[in-house]
Amino acid sequence: MGAVEKILAATQNPQFTHENLEDLIACLGALTCGYTEGLEALFAAAQAEGNLKTFGALMNHLSCEGNPPPSLQCLILEVFSDVCASSPQFKTWLIEETPMIKAILPQLLKSNAAEVRLAALQLACMIAEDDKFVLMFQKGDGLNALKSVLDRGSNPSELGMMLPDLPPDPENRRRAPSERQLAQCLMSKVLIF
């Protein structure tokens, strides 16, 4: 049994603390993000055990039951984002055959932790091009959750489709999109469908 398989098995251990799980998920991300052999081991485990058994524990740790720390939720969302970017089949499975889009993602968008909402929005924006995503997101509580993100207190300069009035950056560095900008982008994708 390789490292990826051992990590996946360990994520199912109810004895582990959230801190232990954070370490495990960080290792899983390091072994699979852009690393072909790690991704192959991940998919081999999923083929041997079944996708739901392999990734189900990670989805359970994402849900707010058990009060997982935001750092753990963000790590899992990053791993899912990386795997979705590497595998169209995984993305399709995540959208169509799991509670991720209809239930878990909307729950994460309503999180009180800004970093969780941002990580959830990043994943959603990345996979929102898939027509099935839009249908599943709309069937669940996705639109209400997205509206709650947009309704959160925001800088008045960010309202509407205009970019916020930011001071010039002398080094011309790119800025990451804000939570509100990602939410607006996602809303435009799910409402235009």
Task: Describe what this molecule looks like in 3D.
The relative contact order is 0.10. The chain has helices spanning 3-10, 18-32, 36-49, 51-62, 70-86, 88-96, 100-109, 114-127, 131-139, 142-151, 179-192. It is globular. The chain is mainly α. It is built from eleven helices and no strands. The longest helix has 17 residues, at 70-86. It has two domains: 1-98; 101-154 and 176-193. Helix 1 (3-10) runs antiparallel to helix 2 (18-32) and helix 5 packs parallel to helix 8 (114-127). Helix content is 68%, strand content 0%.
Give the SSE layout:
Blueprint: H1 3-10, H2 18-32, H3 36-49, H4 51-62, H5 70-86, H6 88-96, H7 100-109, H8 114-127, H9 131-139, H10 142-151, H11 179-192
Q: Characterize the biggest β-sheet.
A: none
Radius of gyration: 17 Å
User: How many structural domains does the protein architecture include?
Assistant: 2
SS element count, helices? 11
- Counting DSSP E segments of at least 2 residues, the number of strands comes to 0
The outline comes out as globular
Q: If you average the pLDDT, what whole number results?
A: 87
Oligomer: single chain
Relative strand content: under 5%
Tell me the series of helices and strands, N- to C-terminal.
HHHHHHHHHHH
Low-confidence stretches: 156-165
The proportion of residues forming helix, as a percent range, comes to 55-70%
Alpha-carbon distance between the two ends: 44 Å
Structural class: mainly alpha
